[in-house]
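Reopening this one. Same input as before:
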Amino acid sequence: MPSDNETDLALLAQLRKGRDTAMNELMERWQRPFMSFAYRYVQSEEDARDLVEELFVRVYKNRDRFKESTKFSAWAFTSLSNLCKNFERWKRRHPAFGKDSLTDDWSRADGEVHPLAETGASIAPDQEALNQERIEIVKDAINKLPHDLRVTLILYQYEALSYKEIGEIVGCTIKGVETRLYRARKALKTILSSKIGPSGDIWGKEEE
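Same output, byte for byte:
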């Protein structure tokens, strides 16, 4: 994930001066991590792409608001998480539209396989079916988490952000991030333990 905020702000400064190609460079830097996050949240590649496109539109429209004190990644992920939340609220009110299915193996948007996905040259059909069932259960469990817990978990577990970076996005202290992760893992363990047994604790034992 891009970590050089000075580069982001420099591109935004160039954008303000009329060099529209700077927007393309900013999109190239952030397309993958933004897609990965949105994909995890809404569980639809098409919807995730639409949400990320909307985010970039907002970046362009707000280009004059980014000052030297701005942390672009925090602003962008906050905006994207709100877009995802609002989209899911709209989707619940319009169930007829539904959502398309993501890749069956719940692989990461950047190509890395989910922790529950088996790897290897060959997998027995019955084992593959079991793996797929477990993955679907995990997807559904994450989807049941409250917005604040889901965002924190995705940013930490899949985007590999630090507690400090997550805190800047979700608007809480490092201790608050730790608490949210604890609550997210505890909630997931409760949901999963009744469905896939002890292995529901998929990310290790949470801190007491």
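So the earlier flakiness isn't reproducible anymore. For the record, The chain has a mean pLDDT of 81.
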